[in-house]
Amino acid sequence: MRPATATGTAHPDLHTQLYWESTGEGRPVLLVMGLGLSGGAWWRTVDTLSRDFRVITFDNRGVGRSRGLTPAYTTEALADDAVAVLDALDITRADVYGLSLGGMVAQQIALRHPRRVRSLVLGATTPGGRRAKTADEEVMSFFYNRDQRPREEAAWASVAYNYGRRCREKHADRIAEDIRHRLAYTFDEDAYKAHLMAAAMHNCASRLHRIQVPALVMHGEDDRVVPVANAHLIASRLPEGRLHLLEGTGHLYTTEAPEADAEVARFFDAVG
């Protein structure tokens, strides 16, 4: 049985309202979601981690149930928003787990607010910079032009890029569950474009050595959206980084490989 969930809002400035949810009890874990997705997209991970931890999810400004006059155009600004959520919950220090764009934001949280981070999980993400490996032209074209499609059509069209072949062939039911959850929340095209820009501008590569907390770098080996070479690059630059690759798995590995959540739980537990 899933623990009870509390909800509320954080207000990083007079014009911004960030919706958050807190599930479970124990040491706090902050989950930071990726491009265009609400905190609700973490539902599988919350089910696993909330057995032993207090799990906090939130919607980035402009996404889902959060509001702001303008979306944040940088991963630095998104990181400050995430810390505002911790402030609203009176949480001094948390384990932080970011996925995709959320992983870029998590890097910035650790760099800009190091005292707020106990440990770090960086999933399916990139450090940015000139040595980072970008997706191929087909993938990039899809994500930069998806706003030209109706929302549901775009969600289904993204399947070929977000999920590995094994998941598409054997676990279509999981993908359908993801898309049902995704379509249940509002989607703001302006916020999506702004967050694409934030991802394109992100660059923490030369500063990763400053992150002095235990870190787990997790990545699907068949990720087309953020190539796995980025995981090797990040792990090589983190003083306390450990790399965990998921065989035959694409970008949204939390759907494809449920064992990934258990691995993250073990990592947080070992940090103590």
TrEMBL record:
GO terms for biological process: glycerolipid catabolic process. The keyword Hydrolase applies. It comes from the Bacteria. Residues 28-252 form the AB hydrolase-1 domain. GO terms for molecular function: triacylglycerol lipase activity. Pfam families: Abhydrolase_1. Keywords: Hydrolase. This is Alpha/beta hydrolase. It comes from Solirubrobacter ginsenosidimutans. The lineage of its organism: Bacteria, Bacillati, Actinomycetota, Thermoleophilia, Solirubrobacterales.
